[in-house]
Amino acid sequence: MSKSEKEKMLAGELYLAGGTELAADTKRISEWMDRFNSKHSRSQEEYQQLLAEGLGRVGANVHIRPPLYCDYGYNIEIGNNVFINFNTVMLDVVKIVIGDKTQIGSGVQILTADHPRDPRQRHKGLEFGRPITIGSNVWIGSAAVILPGVTIGDSAVIGAGSIVTRDVPAGATAFGNPARIRRKEY
After folding, report:
1. 40 has catalytic annotation
2. Edge-to-edge strands of the sheet including 109-111?
3. pLDDT per residue over 3-32, tens digit each?
């Protein structure tokens, strides 16, 4: 039995992103983003309920300032006491895991979606995803870009405007384009 495009996507295999099979998921999250991003003031109960409805797992005391943009939502797992500032993009074709007490600045992009290097495969509309894991107590500065497959260890710091192309170990400070480890404190 062959896998569906969604099953291939979730497994990190090549899949057709523009196919009709994922259209219902895309419609669902688009409607959710319209509701989430349209109102900045709401009760804490309404806010938590809306986050739980749109995202895969949301811990206690999570605060995400709209607008937030994502592909599907159900592949995003957020720990407790996480703060995510305005205008964050999470392309979640596979898992994005964010640990407890992490702070993410404005305009950060967390991108699991990747594309084949072979132009013939790209021409067919194929893509794939590589998961991203962000540890606990991480600070990611504004406008940083986290590329597919990256793991950022606990208590790491990512400088504003950095392009993170490789894993960052726990306790390290990394910045630049591409981001490089500048010091390891813990």
Report:
1. no
2. 68-70, 88-91, 109-111, 145-146, 163-164
3. 899 999 999 999 998 777 799 999 999 999
Tell me yes or no: is domain 5-184 CATH 2.160.10.10.
yes
What is the pTM for the complete model shown? Answer: 0.93
What's phi and psi for 129, nearest 5 deg?
Answer: -130, 155
Catalytic choice (40, 63, 115, 123): 115
- Copy the structure tokens of residue 24: 């219902």
In whole angstroms, what is the distance from residue 24 CA to residue 53 CA? 15
Distance CA 170, CA 160 (A): 18
pLDDT tens column, 88-133: 999 999 999 999 999 999 999 999 999 999 999 889 989 999 999 9
- Name the residue ranges covered by the structural domains of the chain: 5-184
Least Cα distance to 97 among 156, 51, 143, 56 occurs for 56
Report the DSSP beta bridge partners of residue 68.
Answer: 88
